[in-house]
Structure formats: C-alpha cells, structure tokens
Write a structure and sequence with these properties.
Elements: E1 2-10, E2 18-26, E3 29-35, H1 36-42, E4 47-50, E5 54-58, E6 60-65, H2 89-101, H3 104-120, E7 123-130, H4 133-143, E8 146-153, H5 172-189, E9 197-199, E10 202-203, H6 211-224, E11 228-232, H7 238-246, H8 250-256, E12 264-268, H9 274-283, E13 286-289, H10 291-297, H11 303-308, E14 312-315, H12 324-339, H13 347-354, H14 356-361, E15 379-383, H15 397-404, E16 410-415, E17 418-422, E18 425-426, H16 431-448
Parallel strand pairs: 1-4, 1-5, 6-7, 7-8, 8-9, 8-10, 11-12, 12-13, 13-14
Antiparallel strand pairs: 1-2, 2-3, 5-15, 15-16, 16-17, 17-18
Helix pairs in contact: 3-4, 3-16, 10-12, 12-13, 13-15
The structure holds zinc ion.
Zinc ion binds near residues 64, 231 and 318.
Length: about 450
C-alpha cells in the first residue's frame, strides 16, 4: 500500500526544504520525496494525507535517554548538592529513585510516559540505557518507538557518587550480575518488535565500572558486533576520581581502553579539558549532547572546542525533558553564551544534530535521519498554522521551525510506516490509562522513598 503525504513543507534535512512537497512511502520504507506534482504523477496512492499548513520532517533521534526518568519530574531540578550550589538532584533524588526504590513491576507504566512524550513530540528513535530494560522494552514495543537499548552495567554503587567524593568501591559480583542481565536482554530483545529494537552494551561510566569490567564489556561488544553507550565526563567528582585512580582524565582513560571510536555514544561530555575535547573530536566517537539537562544543572561541555574540531555531536535528553525542540534550542543557547558568538552553531545545524547526526551516532544513517527514498518511513507532521511560527519566509523555514515550533505542535507520527500518533493522540496504547497507571506507580515509588523527601 502506497501512502502519499502531499502539499506540505517537506524538510528532508539532507536537502533543502520543498514548498508544496510530498513524501510517498510503501510498507516501512520511503519510496519518493519531491514536489507534490511530481510525486503524485509517479505514484498511484492508495491513501493520501493532506499536509497543507504542516511541515513533513524525519523523526527526531534522541541519542541518550532513560525512559524511566519521568519519575523525576520537578523533583530534581532545584536541588542543591552542597554549600557551593552544585546541582544535587541527580545524586540525592534521581539515582536513588531509579537504582534503589523503583522495582520491576513499576517500570512499564513509569516508562510509558516518557515513551509517549517521545512519540507525541516527534521523536521516533531513542538510544536507551537503564536498569530493568526487560520491562522498558515492552513499552518501546507497545508504543511503537524504534530503540537502541542497553541494560546498564556497573559495579560501583551509583548512589554513592556525589560532588566532592572521589572514592569508589567496586563490587565485582554486581558487575557480573549486570553483564549476565545485559547478555540475557540482548538474547531476548535484539531484533524484536518487528526489528525496531536493537541492542548495545551500556557500561555506566568510567568511575562506576572497574577497569576490568570496562575491558570485559569492550571485548564482549567487539566479539558480538555491538556498539557501546556510556556516560562520560558526566558529573563533578568523576574526573577527579579517574585522575586519582588512573593518572589520566576519563577521556584519555577510555581512549587507552579502546573505547574512543565510531562505535561509541558518550553522553554528556561535560567535564573535559580542551585537550580532552580535541582528542574526543578526533577519535570519531559520538557525543550525545544533553544540552537542556546540563544547562539546568548550571554546567556545560566545551562546545566551542568540540565544534571547532568537528566532533560528531548528536542530541539527547537523559532524564528530562524529551521534547527535542527544547534540546535543539538549549544546544544553541549554551554554545552561543559560551562562545559569545552566534557563529558557533545555527538552527539548521541543530536540526541536523537532532536527526541525521543522531542516525550517524547510532550507525543507522542508511536507514533513518533524513527523508530520502529507501530510508525507513519514520516521519513527523508539524503544525505550522500557529502564531509562533507565522509569518513564514520560505528561505528561513528551518531556522523558523527550530527557534519557534514546539513538540506539542507535532500532529502525526509514523514509525516504520505505521501511524503511532494521529491528530496529536498516541494510537498504540491508551494515553489516559497510561497516565493513571504511571501516577499510581510513581506514588508507590515515592512512598517507598519518603526518606529522600524529608523536609521538602
Ligand atoms: Zn544518563
């Protein structure tokens, strides 16, 4: 069956926008992209979608997310970690909620809210890492997302990581258990959900995995042909710990262990020296720039140096928010404030990072990330008939969208040619039921964790 989305502003990303454009897809693949008149002449449509007043975009690709993270909404952002005002919500609230108090039966509905937010705001692919991935994968399957997934591997208690603490106690049995879970997850889920779920290995971070664990995971990933997904230069204390324990920075340490190459997605990359940033950029490893998240924490990566050295930069959300429009704008604001210049990044570059850059980071650029014949039909319709994007000057359409549109303007989303959002509603699971069940699950977790909220 051929579907033609016609008469929209088609934004292919790899090509200039097409006014009165069309995208044709058959099954799970795009078969044509071009002016509406040309596409309607080439393809006999079984079904047409009128996209007048809308933009047609490739689905966004979020390269670092924890789908369970909705549990933290509003709880972490304003929490101070110490008297110096270092952000503390991650250490005091988020890590304990996720790693200590959440239990497997809570996870499906908790993760459903982030998964629904992703598709409702135009994200079609996520690079997910976390605990309880067996449960998270069911949500990915049911909501209709595409996901690269990794069961988190760690052998130091992540809840002991906090600003100023430069000691780590490794528990080899923990790593062994995590590796077994990760292998089981790959066996159970790689290639599942009609091929929409694929896997990576997810060692947590250079300071929460022992060196022997990092070496072993790298060997397993190489042997089985899987990519790696980790946190790097993530939090205050990580850099100090690694320098003390290893005599070199986290970036140099991972480079020496063979991690820094194009099969790695590294999230955050905040606490890096100029030399680290140059080394990272030259290595071909991919950065997941969690601009909205780190901006809220009051710190940011050395973007000026990373861009100047042509680092591969894609965008990610981590915990919150998953609206890629917020993340694109945060990436622009952070870099410009740091550089004192608008030249460091522009709107079209931000959109490229949110789409094709994400596809490259995941090694999936032949299948997703832009609107081109032969790629997967992962498509988004964006309402342009709003006060915040009008008037529209065609030559600056992409910048207009990046600076002024919002995730809530997304009206329709297809993944693999299947409609997962129609007229602003998720089609695959009941959103009202998910909200009710998520609230109940969150209240169970918060109740168990009441000690965390003492005095608030
Ligand atoms: Zn993370």
């Amino acid at each position: 069956m051929v579907t033609v989305i016609e008469h929209g502003w088609v934004v292919p990303v790899a090509q200039p926008p097409i006014e009165d454009g069309a995208v044709a897809f058959e099954g799970d693949r795009i078969v044509g992209v071009g002016p509406s008149a040309e596409i309607s002449a080439r393809f006999k449509a079984d079904r047409t979608v009128d996209a007048r007043g809308k933009a047609v975009l490739p689905g966004f690709i979020n390269t670092h997310i924890h789908l369970i993270g909705g549990l933290n909404k509003g709880l972490t952002e304003d929490v101070s970690g110490n008297s110096a005002g270092v952000s503390g919500g991650l250490f005091k609230i988020a890590m304990p909620l996720h790693y200590v108090y959440a239990e497997a039966p809570d996870v499906y509905w908790l993760a459903s809210m982030h998964a629904l937010e992703c598709v409702r705001t135009g994200t079609t692919t996520v690079n997910e890492m976390g605990k309880f991935e067996q449960e998270v994968a069911k949500v990915v399957r049911d909501v209709g997302l595409r996901a690269v997934m990794a069961e988190n591997i760690r052998d130091s208690a992540v809840v002991d990581v906090r600003p100023g603490v430069v000691e780590r106690t490794f528990v080899p049995a923990d790593a062994e258990h995590c590796i077994e879970e990760a292998m089981r997850f790959i066996d159970d889920w790689h290639g599942k959900a009609d091929g929409r779920i694929t896997c990576r290995f997810g060692p947590n971070a250079p300071d929460t995995c022992a060196e022997s664990t990092l070496v072993r995971v790298k060997e397993l990933a190489d042997k089985r042909g899987f990519g790696l997904h980790t946190h790097l230069a993530q939090v205050p204390g990580e850099r100090e710990y690694v320098i003390k324990a290893q005599g070199r920075s986290p970036v140099k340490y991972l480079a020496d262990l063979g991690y820094l190459n194009s099969s790695l997605v590294a999230a955050h990359c905040v606490f890096m020296s100029e030399e680290d940033a140059e080394m990272f950029a030259a290595s071909g490893a991919h950065m997941s720039h969690t601009a909205y998240l780190v901006g809220k924490r009051g710190y940011f990566p050395p973007m000026k140096t990373l861009y100047a050295n042509k680092a591969s930069v894609a965008l990610g959300s981590d915990w919150l928010s998953n609206d890629m429009f917020k993340i694109m704008r945060s990436a622009i604001l952070l870099a410009r404030q740091q550089a004192g210049s608008v030249a460091v990044i522009d709107g079209p570059k931000a959109l490229e990072m949110a789409t094709l850059g994400g596809a490259r980071a995941l090694g999936m650029e032949r299948d997703i990330g832009s609107l081109e014949a032969g790629k997967k039909a992962d498509l988004v319709l964006l309402d342009l008939e709003t006060p915040w994007v009008n008037p529209i000057r065609p030559a600056q359409l992409v910048s207009n969208i990046v600076y002024n549109a919002n995730g809530s303007d997304v009206t329709d989303v297809w993944v693999d040619g299947r409609a997962v959002v129609a007229d602003r509603r998720a089609t695959q699971i009941d959103g009202a039921e998910a909200r009710r069940e998520c609230q109940a699950a969150a209240e169970r977790v918060w109740s168990r964790a009441s000690a965390l909220f003492a005095g608030t």
